[in-house]
Amino acid sequence: MFRALLLIALVPAVVYGNVGRACTNGRPQATNVNILGCTAPPCDLVRGQDVIAYIDFTTDRAVTSMTTVPTATALGITAPYPLPAEFADTCAWLEGSSCPLSANEDVTYRLTIPVLPIYPLVSLSIEIDIVDQDSNSVSCFVVDARVVAAN
């Protein structure tokens, strides 16, 4: 019985792991970044599938709205990684809370990133900057990843 309980308790640790690192320029850092199926970077982004991530962060000020702004760097080139509008609205994907947010509020955000079948098989870094209504960073993190073919 004890072994079964221990196994159940350890399963989330195998599936989830904080895989984010800090952004540059002193932007507020996410407290935890968990990408489903990734326990350590680089995380595999499977062509033709969505990547689901759960990001925990704390607001440092009152926020009325937020937008997710991803940027990808691959082969020395940095470019926007546009999200479909329905996924870019950060407030629509908060778990257990909603905008507006108060200062010092702890939130969990469910991020969905589509990985299109046309993306090249390449290693990259993805910076996710969550910005407020004034385009100021609320939380930011970087994940090292690689685009892989579906099995």
UniProtKB/TrEMBL annotation:
<feature type="domain" description="MD-2-related lipid-recognition">
    <location>
        <begin position="20"/>
        <end position="145"/>
    </location>
</feature>
<protein>
    <recommendedName>
        <fullName>MD-2-related lipid-recognition domain-containing protein</fullName>
    </recommendedName>
</protein>
<keyword id="KW-1015">Disulfide bond</keyword>
<keyword id="KW-0732">Signal</keyword>
<dbReference type="GO" id="GO:0005576">
    <property type="term" value="C:extracellular region"/>
</dbReference>
<dbReference type="InterPro" id="IPR003172">
    <property type="entry name" value="ML_dom"/>
</dbReference>
<dbReference type="InterPro" id="IPR014756">
    <property type="entry name" value="Ig_E-set"/>
</dbReference>
<dbReference type="Pfam" id="PF02221">
    <property type="entry name" value="E1_DerP2_DerF2"/>
</dbReference>
<keyword id="KW-0964">Secreted</keyword>
<dbReference type="GO" id="GO:0032934">
    <property type="term" value="F:sterol binding"/>
</dbReference>
<dbReference type="InterPro" id="IPR033916">
    <property type="entry name" value="ML_Npc2-like"/>
</dbReference>
<comment type="similarity">
    <text>Belongs to the NPC2 family.</text>
</comment>
<dbReference type="InterPro" id="IPR039670">
    <property type="entry name" value="NPC2-like"/>
</dbReference>
<dbReference type="GO" id="GO:0032367">
    <property type="term" value="P:intracellular cholesterol transport"/>
</dbReference>
<feature type="signal peptide">
    <location>
        <begin position="1"/>
        <end position="17"/>
    </location>
</feature>
